[in-house]
Design goal:
Layout lengths: L1 E4 L15 E2 L3 H10 L3 E5 L6 H11 L5 E5 L9 E4 L5 H7 L8 H8 L2 H8 L6 E2 L8 E4 L20 E4 L3 E5 L6 E4 L3 E5 L2 E4 L6 H11 L4 E8 L3 H6 L9 H9 L2 E6 L6 E3 L4 E15 L14 E13 L4 E3 L11 H18 L5 E6 L8 E6 L6 H11 L9 E6 L7 H11 L2 H4 E8 L16 E8 L18 H10 L5
Parallel strand pairs: 2-14, 3-4, 5-18, 6-14, 20-21, 21-23
Antiparallel strand pairs: 1-3, 4-5, 7-17, 8-11, 9-10, 9-13, 11-12, 12-17, 13-16, 14-15, 16-17, 19-20, 22-23
Helix pairs in contact: 4-9, 5-8
Bound molecules: flavin mononucleotide.
Length: 498
Amino acid sequence: MGWYSFRNRSARFVEHMTPKSNPLDLRVWLDHVEQMGELDQCLGASTDLEIGAISQLNVKKSEHHALLFDDIKGHEKGFRVLTCSTGSKRRLASILRLPDPSSHQSLIESLRDKPAQWQSAAHQFAPVQVQQGPVLENTMQGDAVDLNQFPAVLWNQHDGGRYIGTGCSVVTRDLESGWVNVGTYRVMKHDKNRVGLMIIPGKHGHIQHAKYKEAKKPFPVVIVLGADPLSYLISGIEIPYEVSEYNYMGAILGEAVSVVHGDLTDLPFPSGAELVLEGWVYPDDLLPEGPFGEFLGYYTSESSLASVLTVEKIYFRNQPIILGSPPSKPPNDYSYSKSVMRSALLFNSIVASGVPNVQSVWAHEIGGSRMFNVVAIKQKYAGHARQAGHILSQCGVGAYMSRYSIVVDEDIDPSNLSEVMWAVATRSDPVRDIDFIQRGVGSQSDPMSIANQSKAPFASKAIIDACRPFEYLNEFPKVVDVSKDIEEVVKKKWPDLF
Ligand SMILES: Cc1cc2nc3c(=O)[nH]c(=O)nc-3n(C[C@H](O)[C@H](O)[C@H](O)COP(=O)(O)O)c2cc1C
């Protein structure tokens, strides 16, 4: 086993790209990431906890690279797993086709107005059906279907099974309107031709499944287990009902997604996908699924019965790469991307509600990008800080599971926990500067719901005003720190030290 920089680049797989459509080819993106110097390879790891442990330890580093696992124990060389794909500002910006950012804040700045633009442009980017694509290089069908050939990982020690789908996209169709939904839902391997699908009630895939169940019809499904990470990034966020995620991805790319349609279900999947499962969920076919470590870092539910997909056909590229993105105690594989996306939405919501002088916002990974959020403002009037804090805590995109909302002055970087907690420690008076809200919006997946005696998921919230008191802004003690000017001078003079 060893770590080394990934070197063998080639111009492969570019030939199938057409100017008008994008096959969501993971390998094109990996070439780009390798050029950025942000791709490492790991050889010889086992799917039994080792791939999960290495990925999780990698994410804990202050700056980390994407990880490509090869020579996986018990699997054919070349059958690979990629993790940590979205975990740096540069990789995330490249996935979202945004300019190379100099800081987390500049990434949020360039992202802020995009979701609204992408949504309104989505209708112009219907996916383009093609007949050819790398995903058709190999197929298995009927009795030949054998999921055991592909690495399915036991990510964390108390997981109830091996998960082949984490950074995946599950494609389904509405029985009445034909609208195609693409959602990220975890996929547990049961045996050589069956996987379990855990879709939370209310998710679009669940709503579509319910219609088939009611009609007593098998539910057609395809699961994309590896593609350009844009695919699972977008299928993993809330895109409005009846807007297909493929259209939305097209709006981000500025060109339609190129798809082939499954022979059995006619469902579309990217022509450059790595590995795709196709089949049906038969009515009342249920098997125990989970538990699975969740995004706040706990096992909040036990094993329970979940729908089973019987896989009847598999499509895969030569040497396929499965995209893994397991949750765990944050920071985890995808927590950075969630922080950036939610911070951009929160920033816009606070500004839209009329709060002036908002400098930046950060939804911290440690709170699953929901429970510990910070806004930096340049105070303009008495009460400004409380106003910003309460709106951060209660605005539309912020209210669900917001536990701590903190307001800091403009000299504090809200994404830097140490600076934020320094401000809390030195600029707030607990009795005066912490406001509480009772019976706010909570969630059953909050581990603290265990201590909530209520039948409904209420939760209390705290707003911490860690700004210098407005009436003492001018008299407040000066900060002891290196000034920007002298920092620049010494860094230039002694570059080796910094
Ligand atoms: C890596 C990852 C794993 C996820 N796992 C699940 C899951 O197992 N079940 C689920 O219902 N939602 C899961 N989600 C959340 C959904 O993907 C998300 O709510 C998405 O909006 C669902 O798509 P839909 O709105 O089209 O239903 C996951 C998200 C990510 C990013």
